[in-house]
Amino acid sequence: MMSQHLFYDFNASTREDALVTKRDAEGGELFDMFGTLREMLARDALFRFRVCKMPQQCEGAVKGNNPDFLSRLDSVMSSLGFTKPISTGRRCRLYDRPDAAMICDGLPRSGLDNRLNFTLGSGSAGTLRKILGEIATESSLEVKVFTWTPVLR
């Protein structure tokens, strides 16, 4: 078994960078991964060095009523004290504050313009629930949690 390799798709350039795709080294179908290499590196760093280091994490999806739902999500996260470490495109969001971090991403050409998966980490389940509750109270956003790590009792 051979790992897949990352490639730039220069025909799908975005924001002075190129779409990041992956495929088998010997060819085959390309799978879109990130809007830009910068997003990929920042997402991986925030995930590895912030979210994964948090004692409590959850994974799920956030969905909006329209393709512009990210402006509502950005507004809620800002009101909760989160900053965005870098600017990102419509298929990636990165949020950070001292006690919590969240990554949201989706496949760039997936056709799901109103949904992103997320991983959220913090020091406690209570903090995560409060953050998710604030997001869910925004009438144009819907939150669904799939897993908690460690599992809640």
Quick overview of this protein structure:
It contains 3 helices and 8 strands, in the order βββαβαβββαβ. The chain has helices spanning 37-49, 69-79, 125-137, and strands at 5-14, 17-23, 31-34, 56-64, 92-97, 100-105, 115-122, 141-149.
Describe what this molecule looks like in 3D.
This protein is an alpha+beta fold and 153 residues long. The chain is 24% helix and 39% strand. It has a domain at 46-149: Double Stranded RNA Binding Domain. It has helices at residues 37-49, 69-79, 125-137, and strands at residues 5-14, 17-23, 31-34, 56-64, 92-97, 100-105, 115-122, 141-149. The strands form two sheets. It has a five-stranded antiparallel sheet, with helices on both faces. A hairpin with a 2-residue loop joins strand 1 and strand 2. The protein is globular and about 45 Å long.
